[in-house]
Amino acid sequence: MTNFVFGDLETSDSNVNSLSILEASFCLYDDRFREIAPFHETARIKPTSVPSLGAVITNGISVAKLKGANRSSFELTCKIYKTLKEWGEFCTIGQNFIQFDSEALIRQYYKALLPDVYHLKKLPQKMMDTLFLARAAKLIDDKSLNCEISAKGSQIFKLDSLTAQNNIPHDNKHSSAGDVAATATLAKMIAERVPELWKAGLKIAHKSDAQTFIEKNKIVSHIAYFYGRSRWYAVKFCYVNKWNFSKCWDLRANPEDYLKLGYHELKKKLKGVPKPLRTIKPNKFDICLDYSYAFNAEPYDKIGENELRRRSSVLDANPTFIELMKTIDNDEIDEKTDIDQTDLIPELRLYADGFPSKKDEKNMELFHKMEWKDRVKLFDKWENEKYSWFNKVLLFEEHPELLPESVYKEVKREFARRLFTTEDVSWHTFPKFAQELVDFGVKFEKQKNKEGLKMIREYDIFVKEMEKTYENA
Fold first, then answer.
1. Is residue 188 domain-shared with residue 212, that is, in the same domain?
2. Pair 71, 28 in one domain
3. Per-residue pLDDT, 354
């Protein structure tokens, strides 16, 4: 019996490293999709986050709501963490949750000095995504879901489109609570209409289970989505690379055409189109099913099962060839990661530094037991300096009056530098906001959208006030 938690976040920006969570909704369901416990909270924007007009207009979050929520972003993050921990074992599900919401939440935990940032990804917890399930359902059974078609002929899998096309109630679109309820109904529909997909999805809903499935079955049907289409791939597992991705041979390609190639020739050939070596990311809920699905789809059905299995056996008989591919792959990974990351700002060092030390874990636990006035004492107790920085930033955002003047100025100067920069950085800045203001102003003027113009004027005033607080840093 598996409980499900459907979740959704509404944020101030699309950059997972710099955003503020403005709304968070999670709902615990039993395995029959019966609601057990809801969670819905809002938060104020961080004083260190510049809102993106594109995000807040889509979410319909007004300046009054942005400023007037009862909780701070830090308080909301801690409450989400505590609630999800209390709900025990479950499978988290959301629409594009794995790519965005989960990553955003991990980074909020990270900056809030919470010790177990990956708790939603650790067994026995599992995670699925209705975006991938919907694409797979449509490919397996075209009648399972109705899909809107774009002007370019692509199937549209956005939540608001799927709900409209399939008569799924979707009140308060782009609010976290409305999206959670709609996502739960969509998931139930997929589970009922394509039960073999739902069962298969649960079997690969943790990266270790997915990896085991791929290695045990040797040949699997993989679904990949690009250029607006889902496609079947019959692939044979070859090896796991340094990034813990499964590298699999596409059986449409005859491996015998590659066996005698040397390092440089093979490296070039592996980059050809279509790529003979495909990547499956077990930690990203890449859909993998029994081999028969792809074997019965083009072009594999024309090649025939006997020939496909023969090609698989050729790979089994040539471990040196597989080892050469692995060497090429890992060498390229080394080239990509052989970059000095010491200059990365602390917020971007989640993966660069690995896991916190035992001492820093204990400091995190201590931090969350302390009163705010006592948290200042931890500044020089951290082994990794980035945690000392987060410690200071949290005081700056939550209780700046408790900071020593030198520390207050240090944090303020750094955020002034970041937020006023005209460089091409990943986070949202005052200059980026100014450009958005012009773009949306022109758009809404043409549309004669009075409500839209009123909203961006309010945001302009809000951001100008924010700029003033950093001007003399």
1. no
2. yes
3. 87
Q: Could you list the residue range(s) of the whole structural domain that residue 129 is in?
A: 4-195
**Counted domains in the chain:** 3
Indicate whether 341 pLDDT > 60: no
Helix (H), strand (E), coil (C) string for the chain: CCCEEEEEEEECCCCCCCCCEEEEEEEEECCCCCEEEEEEEECCCCCCCCCCHHHHHHHCCCHHHHHHCCCCHHHHHHHHHHHHHHCCCCEEEECCHHHHHHHHHHHHHHHCCCCCCCHHHCCCCEEEEHHHHHHHHHHHCCCCCCCEECCCCCEECCHHHHHHHCCCCCCCCCCHHHHHHHHHHHHHHHHHHCHHHHHHHHHCCCHHHHHHHHHHHCEEEEEEEECCEEEEEEEEEEEECCCCCEEEEECCCCHHHCCCCCHHHHHHHHCCCCCCEEEECHHHCCCEEECHHHHCCCCHHHHCHHHHHHHHHHHHCCHHHHHHHHHHHHHHHHHHHCCCCCCCCHHHCCCCCCCCCHHHHHHHHHHCCCCHHHHHHHCCCCCCHHHHHHHHHHHHHHCHHHCCHHHHHHHHHHHHHHHHCCCCCCCCCHHHHHHHHHHHHHHHHHHCCHHHHHHHHHHHHHHHHHHHHHHCC
Is 220 in the same domain as 152?
Answer: no
Give the confidence band of 184 by pLDDT, cuts at 50, 70, 90. Answer: very high
pLDDT digit string, tens, across residues 111-151: 999 999 999 999 999 999 999 999 999 999 999 999 999 99
- What CATH number does the domain containing 221 carry? 3.30.1520.20
